[in-house]
Amino acid sequence: MTAPSSKALLRIGIPALKVAVALGLVIWIARKVDFSEGWAAVRALSATTISVIILLLLLQALLSAWRWCLLSEMIGRRLKISGAMKLFMQSLFYNQALPSPIPGDAARIFGAVKYGLTVGEATLGVVMDRMLTLFGLAVVALIGLIIMRAVYQFDFPIPYLTEFTTLGVAGTIALAVAFGWRHRLFIRFLPARLHALSTALQAFITHRRMVGIFLLTLVIHGVSVVSLEILVLGLGLPLGWGQATAAFPPVLLIAMMPISVGGWGLREGGMIVSLAAFGIGTTDAATLSVVFGLLQLLIGLAGGVFVLSRPHSGKIKAL
User: Fold this and answer.
1) Which one of 1, 8, 33, 132 is least enclosed by Cβ atoms within 10 Å?
2) What is the pTM of this model?
């Protein structure tokens, strides 16, 4: 019997570590929560509040699928919105059910090929969609961090979070400007396998719809903030819309860190720290985060309906 390769150990070890981090954080936070108080708050939520949030999260998925269609068109061939929405819901299912985003991205790539895109076009579209999502969230989170510091005199207890986020956003913008201006100079120093991505990025940066797509990205992230504030109102917590705009985006950015499963634990910890600046206690903050996470999970699991009919789902699960 041969020893397992380092690549195989990484494929098993990294997801296992993410699960351990998520469980560890959730258990640690649970020890500080009054479950009877949290459950009473959840029971007070109206069906209308839950329904509105679910509709908003579905709208967010639809807007994300539409943006993916627009990005695909820039690369070469546009997806139909119906197919893109179906594939996006499938990817949400994999992202919620598995400790890695790779199967969800693979679902979109394989599915896009089925709808007529080449493997290269489909891969570039998904990669660019991921990059734009992360950059847009960083911009929204930076605005929240600046408001928290300037208006509410509060800094997250993560060393230099505001400074690093500022550096990342400013550096990305500067690099994009230089890249769009001197694309040929950059491409000389890139490996050949990145030339297609380089060309796609240059096409996006110089495209007349670039600003519109970026604004659409900000709207997509804004839907999360609106959903959370509606949940805040439903739980009866004392947090206004302006405070929500400052408090929630940094938490969503922290939850994107690839060291947990679906942001669980990270989102709850970030929410507790962020809302403490506005006098909201640990139980209320954790309850808000958990309910929001469960509603996101519900939307993701709804994508499993589309997965059941997929002829290539076995390939994706094997990744």
Assistant:
1) 1
2) 0.89
